[in-house]
Amino acid sequence: MDNYAIRKIENNHYMIFYSHWNINNKIVYILNFYNVESIFDEKDRQTFAILVTDIIILIVAFIAIFIFSKFLTNPISSLNKTSKMIASGKFNERVNIKSKDEIGELAESFNIMAQQIENKINELNIQVKQKNDFINSFTHEIKTPMTAIIGYSDLLRLKKCDEEITQKALNYIYFESKRLESLSFKLMKLMSITEEKIEKNNIKVNDLVERVVKVETDILENIKIETDIEPSIVIGDFELLEVVMRNLIENAKKAEPKDNKVIIKGNKIENQKYRISIIDKGKGIPKEHINRITEDFYMVDKSRSRKCGGTGIGLSLVKKILLFHKTDIYIESEVDIGTTVYFDLEEGE
């Protein structure tokens, strides 16, 4: 065989083999034709099958890649969606991703961050509400005395009154002005204590009590202050603790103690603490009011408090000061028997 060739003849493929021979000095050519159309049909069939298989593999691969990419990107999309909802003000939204991979850790950190943001927003909302309530209460508190002061002042300015009316008007103006002055000082203290850092020092309890008794004795009428103090040193701010004790003593006086006495007691207790108690045998406080009397402007008996010059923020101020001393105010009281108010301080060296 010298060579071969494949030719398409009348829609059929033929394989042609040709060779030549030298016979008796003559060249003889021999051609052989074979129909190989079936081979080409099989080739086309296999080519089509491979093409279809490749397409199916590509489709399956695309679907698998799509599903896998969705599996990977869904948590990120969820994080993105939740972050947008939080940014729009829905601070209670959270990401629900439970995987233990890096995305799961990111989701957990994101939820912690969102919770902290929600807590902070709620805290700010509470502070805004408290501030608004405080302003509204303060406005209401000063409205009545200011109206009366303006009225009496206008009366004295425009009309000549007899001595009795003049004295009554002047007394009212004076005492209400003093009450408003006291209220203003307390408000400034409430605001400044919230913003300023308190510097704590060692304080001799006897010095603190002696100072308070001296000042309050000059102010209180028909009230005797008795002391029972165990010597010690406490940690705190002298002036602020003086404000605390003076407020508590004045509240005890307003309770109208039957024996006209207010007792200051100080004694050491466990865990390096020192307890200061203000005790009276006055009217007492109903149980339903005890948990609320440290709120701003809250009064158990508004008529008696106003009559005695009360502002309704004394115990609120006391509570704020004591919180800065890492303690609190505690009240034990029975109606018509008396009240004991106490707080604990850390002992110094």
Could you describe the 3D structure shown?
The chain is α+β, with helices and mostly antiparallel strands and 349 residues long. Among the domains are: 118-196, Signal transduction histidine kinase, dimerisation/phosphotransfer (DHp) domain (Helix Hairpins, Orthogonal Bundle), CATH 1.10.287.130; 200-346, Histidine kinase-like ATPase, C-terminal domain (Heat Shock Protein 90, 2-Layer Sandwich), CATH 3.30.565. 56% of the residues lie in helices and 21% in strands. The protein is built from 8 helices and 10 strands. The strands form 3 sheets. It has a 5-stranded mixed beta sheet with strand order 5-7-8-10-9, with helices on one face. Strands 1-2-3 form a 3-stranded antiparallel beta sheet, covered by helices on one side. Strands 4-6 form a two-stranded antiparallel ribbon. Helix 1 packs parallel to helix 2 (102-158) and helix 5 packs antiparallel against helix 8.
| CATH class (first level) name of the domain at 200-346 | Alpha Beta
Low-confidence parts, pLDDT < 50 over ≥5 residues? Answer: 297-312
Q: Could you say which structural class the secondary elements and strand pairing correspond to?
A: alpha+beta
Shape: rod-shaped
CATH architecture of the domain at 200-346: 2-Layer Sandwich
Element-level helix/strand string: EEEHHHEHEEHEEHHHEE
- Spatial strand sequence of the major β-sheet: 5-7-8-10-9
Q: Determine Rg (CA atoms, Å).
A: 47 Å
CATH topology of the domain at 200-346: Heat Shock Protein 90
Report the CATH superfamily of the domain at 200-346.
Histidine kinase-like ATPase, C-terminal domain
Average pLDDT: 80
Query: What is the terminal-to-terminal distance?
Result: 121 Å
